[in-house]
Amino acid sequence: MKDIILKAENISKQYRLGEVGTGTISHDVNRWWYKIRGKENPYLKIGDTNDRSTKGNSDYVWALQDINFEVQRGDVLGIIGKNGAGKSTLLKILSKVTAPSTGTIKSRGRIASLLEVGTGFNGEMTGRENIFLNGAILGMTKKEITSKLDEIIDFSGCSRYIDTPVKRYSSGMTVRLAFAVAAFLEPEILVVDEVLAVGDAEFQKKAIGKMQDISKSEGRTILFVSHQLGSVATLCNKGMLMDKGRIVDCGTVSEIIEQYLLPESGETKANLYLPNVESLNSKKIFFTKIETINSNNQNTDYFGFNESIKIRLSIAIKEDFKNVVLGIGLQDKFNTRVCTFMNNLVDIIVDNSKDNFTVEVIVPSNIIAPNHYSFIFALYEFNGRVYDVIENVCNIKIHDTGTIFSKYEGIDYGNVIINSKWEII
Amino acid sequence: MNNTDNKDWLFEITPKNNFFSLNFKEIWQYRDLLFLFVKRDVITVYKQTVLGPLWYLIQPLFTSVIFTIIFNNVAGIKTEGLPSFLFNLAGITMWNYFAACLNGTADTFKTNASIFGKVYFPRIITPLSVVISNLMKFGIQFLIFIGFYIFYYFDGYNLTLNLSILFFPVLIVIMGILGLGLGMIISSMVTKYRDFSYLIAFGIQLLMYLSAVMYPMELVKSKLPSYGWVVEYNPLAYIIETSRYMLLNFGHISLSGLLYTFTFTIIVFFVGLLVFNKAEKSFIDTV
Lengths: 425, 287
Hints:
The complex is a heterodimer of chains A (425) and B (287).
Chain A: E1 4-16, H1 24-36, E2 48-49, E3 60-72, E4 76-81, H2 87-94, E5 102-107, E6 111-114, H3 127-137, H4 142-156, H5 171-183, E7 189-192, H6 201-216, E8 221-225, H7 229-235, E9 238-243, E10 246-252, H8 253-261, E11 285-293, E12 302-304, E13 309-317, E14 324-332, E15 337-344, H9 345-348, E16 356-363, E17 371-381, E18 386-399
Parallel strand pairs in A: 2-3, 4-8, 4-9, 6-7, 7-8, 12-18
Antiparallel strand pairs in A: 1-3, 1-5, 9-10, 11-13, 13-16, 14-15, 14-17, 17-18
Helix pairs in contact in A: 3-4, 3-5, 4-5
Chain B: E1 11-13, H1 24-29, H2 31-46, H3 54-74, H4 84-106, H5 108-111, H6 113-116, H7 125-154, H8 168-190, H9 195-209, H10 217-223, H11 228-232, H12 235-248, H13 255-286
C-alpha cells in the first residue's frame, strides 16, 4: 500500500511585479470589493506564466501553476529545474514561509525546512547559545537540543570556540555550526534548499553523508533542491523536473536528470562551431563545421560521465594535405590542456577526390571527470606551418552520473577519473 | 488511491488562515523558542556597552527630572502633596513599558523578515517575546521607582500604599496586551504600507501627551472642558491614572473607565490577532 506522507493539490502562487506602491491601494480596494460581494479575487484570473526573459502584458505572474504531486514516506525527492523554475517558491510554500495563492498541501508529518543554514544566528551570542536559539527556531525543543548538544558540537568541529560569540567565527565555522544544528533535526519531512553548497570539501562530504544517513537508515522523507546534479543523483531516488512554474515530469531520479539535460530546441548552442565566411578566403585547409554529439546522435553540450563524446568535424581542403595533421586539444575550464588527440589527414581520408569531408572523433566514456571543458582544434604541419586554428570552442559540460566523486561536485578533484586498483600487501 | 487518502492528515497548508485560528497548541510547542528570544533580547542589549542595564535607568530618571522642571516648576501643575518627581517617575515608568511594547512589536515583520523568510514558526512568538522581554526592562525601571519611593518616604512625605496595589500586576498585563494588540495591527499594515512606521514614530510621542502621564486627568477636564474627552477616551490615560492610584494613592479609580479600558484592550487584542494572522501568511511577498 502506498503510504503518502505529503500531497500537493493544485498549488499556484501569484506574484505582483514591479514596485509595490502605486496602484496597490486601488487593487486592494478592488479585491475587497469583489470579496464582500462574494466573488473571487479578480487578480487570480490574470497573470502571465513565469518566463523571465520575455516581457509580459500583465502586472501579475504565476511563479507556480497547478502543482500536483505526492511524496511517499521514505522517498528522497530531488527537485531540479533552471533558475526561476519555481523550485524555491515551492519550498517556501512547503515550509509555510509563504502561503500559496490557491490549492492545498496536506501532510502527515512534521515539516522542517532548511532553506538557509544559521537562520536567526545572533553574532553577540556564543556558539552554545546559538545552537539553542537556532534549534528552537527550526522547531526543536530545549530538551531535544540538550540531549544532542554534545553530538552537535562534535559534528560541527567547533568545540574549542563553543563559548565564544559567533561574530568572532570565520564564515566557514559559522556554517559548520549551523549545519550541525540542522543535521540533528528529527522531522518526518525535511525540506532542503541548496544549503550544501557551502563549506569545504570535507564538510560537504560530511553533510551529504549525514543526509544519506537520515534518509536511508532512519527512513525519513527529504525534499531536496539542488543544481548539483551529482548530489541529486546520489542522494535522491525520485526526481521532479520543473520549468516556468510548472511540473514537467516526475519519476525516478535518473529519468528526470536525463530529461533535464535534453537539449532545448532553438537554443543557440555553445558546442557548435561555424566559421566566419570572410575569414576563410585566405585559408587553404580549414574547418567548416565542428559540433559535439552524444551517443543518441543528438547535438548537445551536455554529456553524462558514462557517455562517450563524439566530435564531428567538417574540413574543407583546397591544397595538398600530405603532411597535414589534425590536432584536437581538450582543455579544462582554465584552458589548461587535459589531453590531445591527433592524426594525419592522409590516414583519415581514404577518398581524396573530394575537397570536403567530415570526420568523427570519439572520446571514450568514463574517463573525463565531470566538469566544464572546451576544445582547441588545429590543422598544421610538423614543420610549423599552420593552416587553421580554432581556440576555445565547443564548450561542453560533463555531468556526474553517480561516480564516487559525486559528493565533491563543484570541487576540483582533477580532470580525469581513472579506475584504480587497490590491494592490501 | 488507497483508503487512507483523505483522512488523518496531520496538517494542511492553505491559501488563507481561518480568522482567530490561533493555534495555542502550536505556540505551546514553541515555548522554548519564546524563552530563547526573550533571553536573546535581554543578553544582546547589554553587550559591548559600559553602563549595560544602567541605560534602562538613565532614560526615565532624566525624563522625570525634565518633566518635573517643565510641567511642575514652570507650568505649575500641582501634585497635591506628592513629590512631583515621584509623580512623574510613576507615569513615565508605566508609559515606557507601553511605548516599548508598541515600538517593539510594530515593526515585527520588517525587522524579522530575514528569519521569517526562511523558516516557519508561529509568528506571534516574536511580538510576544518583545512584550515579555520589555517586562524585564520595566522591572528594572520599577525598582528605581521603589528606590525613590523609599527615599521620599524617609524624607518625610506622607506616602501611603493602597490595598488595590494587589491588582497592579493585572494592570501591567492589560497594558502589555494593549501594546501587543496595537503593535500587531500596525506591524501587519507596515508590511504593505510603510507609511505606518513613520506614523508610529511620532504618534507614540503625541499619544503620551494625551495619556495623563505628566498631569492628572482631573486637571485636563477642569482646564479644557471642551477637549477633555480626548483624554477621557484614551484607555491609556485610565491605566496610568489607576497605576498612580495604586502606587501613590493619588487621584481616584474610575471603575467605568477601567471597564472601558479592559473592553477596549480585549477588542484591540483580538483585532490584532486577526490581522496578524492574515498578514503572517503572505507578508513575505509584500514586505
